[in-house]
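User:
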Amino acid sequence: MLALIAFIFVIGILLGAVGIGGVVMVPIITQLTGIDIHIVVASTIFSAIFSGAVGTFMYARNGSIQWSMAGWLGAGAIIGAFAGTMLLARLSGILVESIVGVLVLFTGLHALLAKASESQTTFVGSKYTFLLVGTVTGVGSAISGAGGPLLMVPILMWLKFPILAAVALGQFIQIPVALSASVGNVLNGLLDIKLGLLISVCLMAGVVLGAKISVALPAPVVKRVVAVVLVCMAVVILGRLAFG
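Assistant: Predicted structure:
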């Protein structure tokens, strides 16, 4: 139990600092507890309601969240996450995890190899772009349990969105994804409230510390850290799929 708590706390720091890290929780929690993976996915997504709220508050008070974009992302995420939960009980999620792994790997490598001038590109997109990104994020998160930021942050990075703003929106996107997905998971009988609350408490403590670290760092440093974490997460995802 102590190992589980410490592990989730560290993941919370990663989530708060770079918006990514939750993808490794599902396999590790499954191995440590022996709980069915579908229940672990549902409980992990449920915990994002609380960790996402804490992260959103930490970034919002520093003015890092662009609310006009957040609304459209959230609307798409609600639709996508509920649809994803209807598939979760019927699909293994292997194909989705493979797509996520490849996307994350290429995004991380692209960010590591990008020239300084590329990182200064300003993204200009419509509300429909954010609605689509939110929907894709919601579906993928609900099926794979990877978490909204893991999917959304790489997509926004590919679209040349400012990195700190992407990480901040990654905190927010967890809330609509988790709320919508949890409704579907309750209907499918997959949610373990006690496990979800345990994960939530540990994550929230880590997110507070991680958000403080991220805001204090220069944007180029945050981008490099995100890129390295993305590559590491991709290796974990693809390695788990390849070797079981």
